[in-house]
From TrEMBL, chain A:
Protein family according to the UniProt entry: Belongs to the DPM2 family.
Subcellular localization, as worded in the UniProt entry: Endoplasmic reticulum membrane
UniProt keyword Endoplasmic reticulum present: yes
Organism of provenance: Acanthochromis polyacanthus
Name this polypeptide is given: Dolichol phosphate-mannose biosynthesis regulatory protein
UniProtKB/TrEMBL annotation, chain B:
Protein's UniProt name: Dolichol-phosphate mannosyltransferase subunit 3
Chain coiled-coil ranges: 64-91
Keyword set, alphabetical order: Coiled coil, Endoplasmic reticulum, Membrane, Transmembrane, Transmembrane helix
Chief location category: endoplasmic reticulum
Pathway: Protein modification; protein glycosylation
Organism: Acanthochromis polyacanthus
Compartment(s) where it occurs, according to its Swiss-Prot or TrEMBL record: Endoplasmic reticulum membrane
């Protein structure tokens, strides 16, 4: 009695995505300062300022999505006031 | 000392340690790579907590214990119960 196929696919893809994100961000923040500036690894990573700006932008987008979702739900649930 | 005060004390110790390393408040002149790693630490911890939450949600979605036969059986029983009550006069 396992979760259905789509559920498993979605769940596993979330796990893989978050592992990839964690690994990339960890290397970016923790490993890269200890690697000399002309090593080839630096080619795969954006400049370090982006490691602060990109999560900031992602947080703003997340808050916007939550706000929009809440607004849509509240809009759909508005009941017209009774007129006497 | 209340739990809140204990937590605030712990958090302020951690923040003080981070500020000391990042902004070189005591002029310790630590090597540059260590300062570069310490500075984004709060944001890094937040991002890794987010990744952990996402992974936990995904894993629990993937391993959720759906019981399809039990769900069908329950729907059948609900139908039977509705019929039964309707015969006995309860309006649905």
């Amino acid at each position: 009695m396992c979760a259905t196929g789509v559920d498993q696919a979605v769940g596993m893809s979330l796990v893989v995505f978050s592992l990839l994100l964690f690994t990339y961000y960890s290397v970016w923040v923790i490993v890269l300062p200890f690697v000399e500036n002309d090593h080839v690894l630096h080619k795969y990573f954006l400049p370090r300022e982006y490691s602060v700006i990109l999560p900031g932008i992602a947080a703003v987008i997340l808050l916007l999505c939550i706000g929009a979702f809440t607004a849509v739900i509240m809009w759909k649930n508005r009941k017209p006031k009774k007129v006497d | 000392m209340t739990k809140l005060l204990q937590w605030l004390f712990g958090v302020s110790l951690v923040v003080a340690g981070w500020a000391l390393v990042s902004f070189d408040l005591l002029d310790l002149k630590l090597p540059q790579p260590y300062r570069e790693v310490a500075w984004p630490m709060p944001l890094y911890l937040l991002v890794s907590f987010g990744c952990y939450s996402l992974a936990t949600v995904g894993y629990r979605v993937a391993t959720f214990n759906d019981c399809e036969e039990a769900a069908k059986e329950l729907q059948e029983q609900i139908k039977e119960a509705k019929e039964d009550l309707r015969k006995k006069g309860l309006k649905m």
